[in-house]
Amino acid sequence: MKSSKILKIKPLGFPWETSDPFLFCAHHRDVYPKGDGKLGLPMEELKGRNIGQDFSLKNGYRMYHGSHIPGFPYHPHRGFETISINKEGYVDHSDSLGAAGRFGPGDVQWMTAGKGVQHSEMFPLLNENKENPLEIFQVWLNLPKANKFVEPHFKMLWNDMIPRITESDKQGRNTEINIIAGELNGVHAPEPTPNSWAKNPEHGVCILTMKMEANATFTLSAAKSKELGRSLYFYKGSSISIDGEKINEYHLIQLKADEDIHMECGDTNGYLLLLQGKPIGEPVAQYGPFVMNTQAEIQEAFTDFNKTQFGGWPWPLKEQVHEKHKGRFALHANGTEEIK
């Protein structure tokens, strides 16, 4: 019998199903081969692929929209936020404001597209003598109508800024949790971008990544409001049990937010992502990279982009990457630079 605390259990597809205020979630896990010295793949590796639109998991990796370097060459956004949660590998960011960055394992990039920005997210293959694995989550968080036209902005939540808590059960088995947004058990994530829906604590936005050791038990504490949507994505492991309900790998579990949830991992380590937040509750009109409230606003977004290109593209390449030996950094539009 299904627990009364579970609202829905559903197999994961691509992209993953989300609930307001979230719009989209994708999990990318690719094991890229050795790089060719130019941060991309050797030509022989590209044969037989649908270059520019390659989402097939061939030989353990996808090229996405890249032609030589995997990733997402420059493209526009308006009206929402992107949250890139990196677990393994590296991501090179460039945008139409002249901002740029490279982030790596454990880092998170939070970008408010607002009134409009172009950006690229490429996956440079830095290793020439070994494989280049990549694992990243890409989450879209909506903006309310009042903030659809704020100035674009991006912020880095570096690995050493993100709180990590470890809970041990009675047998000493651990559950490790990264708190990317919101709070858990009194531990608070770093501040999000200034105009984010997550900025107001009353909106209850919480983003967690979790690793449960084999056979570990853990209780996810209740949120402060039953109005919040709470989605748990069990994307890797043998199984988990939630209040006695066994759930196999690669499933979405929608939960009541105002209930404590008792979890028990199966006989291999379990990996989960939690997305939680108060619904914005406004109409959503979406076409490709634009998310507004009406179809008329979508047409306006296309018109504005055709006129302005949201600032143009100040970089020499569509698949812009940074120097191979450059470390993790963030160059902001105002000229300030963070070096890690």
From TrEMBL:
Binds 1 Fe cation per subunit. Residues 208-311 form the Pirin C-terminal domain. InterPro entries: Pirin (IPR012093), Pirin_C_dom (IPR008778), Pirin_N_dom (IPR003829), RmlC-like_jellyroll (IPR014710), RmlC_Cupin_sf (IPR011051). Keywords: Iron, Metal-binding. Pfam families: Pirin, Pirin_C. GO terms for molecular function: metal ion binding. Fe cation binds at residues 75, 77, 119, 121. SUPFAM superfamilies: RmlC-like cupins. Its cofactor is Fe cation. Residues 53-141 form the Pirin N-terminal domain. Belongs to the pirin family. This is Pirin.
